[in-house]
């Protein structure tokens, strides 16, 4: 992997989308290791905070339904990128499944217009997804949720048009990061 390429100094948000259990967090961690100074922001944490405050008074099935979640995710990404040292890559990596196009549009429209946004989607076939979910030791309690939401991600056809896809079924996490890094490099060359 060529780590000499410099991500944008103005700020770079790399959003990694994919089915729950597809490997987003694993890939995000490896990418952050490959780009010194890059940080990970997990929008699930924003959802956890809001769940405590809003669920009792404004219950939803998924915290992404709250406009407050979308607003706070964008505000958090803006604040984190601006807080990063000017001398570093100013890259924020976001591992988060998003299947509602309107939600995606709201978040990206609220990001600093100077930021470069790279939208990557990890695609995995059903059998490989099931294997990954069954072997996960970080969140074994999420098994049923991840398996149940797999088709929902695949049905979000807009993702294939809005995100650069990486087919990950036959790839190791390191190979996925190499492909993602190559996508970042080609984006840098074209901007």
From TrEMBL:
The keyword ATP-binding applies. Pfam families: AAA_33. InterPro entries: P-loop_NTPase (IPR027417). Keywords: ATP-binding, Nucleotide-binding. SUPFAM superfamilies: P-loop containing nucleoside triphosphate hydrolases. GO terms for molecular function: ATP binding. This is ATP-binding protein.
């Amino acid at each position: 992997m060529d780590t000499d390429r410099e991500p944008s100094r103005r700020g770079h948000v790399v959003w990694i989308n994919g089915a729950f259990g597809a490997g987003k967090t694993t890939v995000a961690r490896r990418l952050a290791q490959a780009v010194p100074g890059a940080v990970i922001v997990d929008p699930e944490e924003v959802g956890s905070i809001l769940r405590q405050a809003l669920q009792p008074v404004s219950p939803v099935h998924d915290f992404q339904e709250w406009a407050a979640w979308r607003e706070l995710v964008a505000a958090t990404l803006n604040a984190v990128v601006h807080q990063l040292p000017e001398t570093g890559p100013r890259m924020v990596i976001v591992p988060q499944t998003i299947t509602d196009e309107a939600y995606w549009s709201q978040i990206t429209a609220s990001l600093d217009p100077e930021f470069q946004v790279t939208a990557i989607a990890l695609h995995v076939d059903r059998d490989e997804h099931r294997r990954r979910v069954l072997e996960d030791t970080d969140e074994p309690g999420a098994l049923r949720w991840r398996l149940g939401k797999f088709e929902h991600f695949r049905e979000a056809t807009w993702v294939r048009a809005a995100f650069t896809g990486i087919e990950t079924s036959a790839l190791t996490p390191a190979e996925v990061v190499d492909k993602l890094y190559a996508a970042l490099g080609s984006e840098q060359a074209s901007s």
